[in-house]
Amino acid sequence: MSINQSAARINTSVAEVLDRHVVLTVESLDRISLSAIVPRLQIEKNVAAFFLCHRQVFFVKELARLTRDFGARVAEFAETEGVPCIAFETKAKQRKEDVAAEHRRRNPLRDGVLFIGKAQKKAFFLRVTKTKSNTTGHTIPWLTKRTAMVNHYYFYCVDENFGPFFIKYCSYFPYNARLCLNGHEYCKRQLEKEGIEYQPLENGVLSCANPRRLHEICDGLTAGRIQALWNKWQARLPQPFTDDDRCAGFVYDVFLQQVEFSRTQVFDRPLSGRLFFEQMLRDNLDLGRPDNLQLIFDKCIPRTTKTRFRTRLITEHVIPSLWLDHKSSSIKQYFKEGRALRTELTVNTPRDFGFGKALTNLAGLRQVAFAANRRLLHAQQLNHDPTLGDDEFRTLTTPQVIAGQCVSGLRFGDTTVLAVLTALIMFRYTSRGQD
How far apart are alpha carbons 262 and 31 in whole angstroms? Predict the structure, then answer.
């Protein structure tokens, strides 16, 4: 490294890097995980009513038969559509996303099902047990919620508007499901459809020929579009519930499970990003205190709040990241691919910010989350910067040439200089309140 580069490295502040060296800023939804359940079938007595009143069958032998029937429909769909079925290897710690990426590489679909995966995961399901009747006192069969490792079906798909995503169904009644998608993939698909040139970043956008349109596309990913994606693929994939069940009101509702709200700032060169990140890590390790988090998340945190507030510096491989924990949610800040700063709020429970889990709350949660990311960056820019103080000190204590005139430096420690500065401070305001 040359002497000039070393000097720039020392004298560059966080605020200067963000003001002068950021060439593209993108605010977008990142990874989105949504739970899909039939609300009327989450309570045991409602499930009993579903079988006894709606289907008019007894549930003792019906639950096992329904599980077999759903598995048969999935197998029939795979055979009819020519979709491969694979079993994920749990003992080998196989990453499902790696398997999906390999399938996407071999089969560049624009809209369709790539493959169906099968794996065991822990889940709640209903099991027939015995209990005593409140009226007769006799032992009768009943339904109880239990937790166990059960089979799940993963439908890895590609949508023409959203890109890659997957839907996971539990094979046991009441067939709770999950939808996982990525907001950045949605943005890339829209740019491609409109013919706008862009350079991709892993899980992001590095450059774009039309940044304004990119921002509009990011803002256009609304709850309505996500609901439309769910409805579209519900009509295409095999369903555990019959048409009669859906007509009777036994339909899935989609809820927010985990949402990542990201702000990506692309630097003009890798050196600028490294300058920012090293300075930021050094100056902001105490941001995780409750009084600071109140400002960042714009929420009053009373003393009785039983949670842990902290800042963590986590190093993965050789790249460190800064984590700020707030209840069950957290803000993560890291340097992405040596080119961009990613500030990302992961909301694990919308109630941390006063919102319910309904998908319609996405718009309000979005405003709060992006504002928190901006306030964090604003706080980092306002932090005390010792390199800036060093520059000012050198300017005051060394001779300067201003407007062609030589001005002597102030000798700090000299009693005359201290007296002059004290007088200037005392007479900063006159008695009339004017300068």
Answer: 9
Predicted pLDDT at 128: 74
The answer to whether 81 and 113 are in contact (CB under 8 A) is: yes
Output 364 or 292, whichever has higher pLDDT. Answer: 364
Residues facing 129 on adjacent strands: 142
Question: What pLDDT is recorded for position 379?
Answer: 78
What DSSP letter does each residue of 49-107 carry, written as one string? HIIIIIS-S-HHHHHHHHHHHHHHHHHHHHHHHT--EEE--TTTT--HHHHHHHHHHH-
pLDDT tens for residues 82-140? 999 998 877 656 788 888 888 888 888 889 999 999 998 888 877 777 777 667 767 77
User: In the chain, what are the domain boundaries?
Assistant: 1-31+183-220+252-398, 39-174
**CA 424 from centre of chain:** 51
What percent of the chain is helix, strand and coil (3-state, nearest 5)?
A: 40, 30, 30
Distant-in-sequence, close-in-space partners of 1: CB < 8 Å, separation ≥ 6: 9
β-pair type (253-267, 204-208): unpaired
Structure tokens belonging to residue 111: 């809209």
Q: What is the pTM of this model?
A: 0.77
**Residues 336 and 201 sit within 8 Å (Cβ to Cβ):** yes
**Cα atoms found within 13 Å of the Cα of residue 222, Cβ hemisphere only:** 6
Strands (E), 337-391: 340-347
